[in-house]
Amino acid sequence: AVPSAEGLFHRAIVQSGPLTRFKSPEEADADALALLDAWGLTPETAAEGLKTLTWEQVLEAEAAVTADFSMSAPGFPTGFWPVLDGDYLPDHPFDGTAAPSSLDVPLLIGQTGTEFTLFMLQDQAAYGLDEAGLTARITGMMGEAGTGVLATYRADFPDIAPSALYFRIFSDFAMGGLSQAI
Questions:
Q1: pLDDT of residue 1
Q2: Which residues pair with 14 in a beta bridge?
Q3: Does an H or E element contain 40, and which?
Q4: Nearest to 116 by CA among 126, 102, 103
Q5: The pTM is what?
Q6: 15 bridge partner residues
Q7: In which element (H, E) is residue 162 found?
């Protein structure tokens, strides 16, 4: 994905699922402005204002801003991602226009079984799901197909708690889906 890295890598591993789309400069600017707004700052006051923030204020603003991030391809929340800059990151890493030099580099893509557990920290209700809550979340995420997906996972993992099964399904959906798309 980085043309200037040509020849530096002979094999590569992407762990925790691949990030297949980067943010545009406009999207990154909007995220930055949202953070500044959460702190009561503007681009003009940021240089001095950022110096006065406590770590608690930083985390509170991050939580508020990321709560508004949407779900995207497939089922992965947008976030503070790398930004296309036209030089270091000129293209999305898995587009046909991405650095042709990386085509000869073998790539292994992986994730842990419950990778998405960490990303759910702001959704404490996800940690106490019952079967009805699990079903509602999976069918809400996948529509009618969710019923079959849930039955398949429940057959494979009959003894795990509903929340643990939710994290496993969501991890596969969000990160595994991106891996399979490549």
A1: 66
A2: 109
A3: none
A4: 126
A5: 0.67
A6: 110
A7: helix 162-171
Task: State how far the Cα of 144 lies from the Cα of 168, in Å rounded to an integer.
Answer: 19
Q: Which residues of 83-122 are buried (b: 16+ CB within 10 A; e: fewer)?
A: bbeeeebeeebbeeebbebbeeeeeebebeebbbbebbee
Tell me the C-alpha to C-alpha distance, in Å, between residue 103 and each of 16, 21, 44, 106: 21, 18, 43, 8
Give pLDDT, residue 75. Answer: 43
In 3D, which of 107, 104, 105, 102 has the Cα closest to residue 92?
102
Instruction: Give residue 146's pLDDT.
Output: 94
pLDDT tens figures, 109-161:
888 888 888 878 778 899 999 999 999 999 998 999 999 999 999 999 999 99
Three-state SS for 88-143 is CCCCCCCCCCCCHHHHHCCEEEECCCCHHHHHHCCCHHHHHCCHHHHHHHHHHHHC
The SS3 call for residue 30 is helix
Query: Which two three-digit tokens encode residue 23?
Result: 């943010």
Q: Give 42's strand partners.
A: none
* Cα–Cα distance for residue pair 81/88, rounded to 1 Å: 14
Which residue has 């990321």 as its token pair?
A: 66
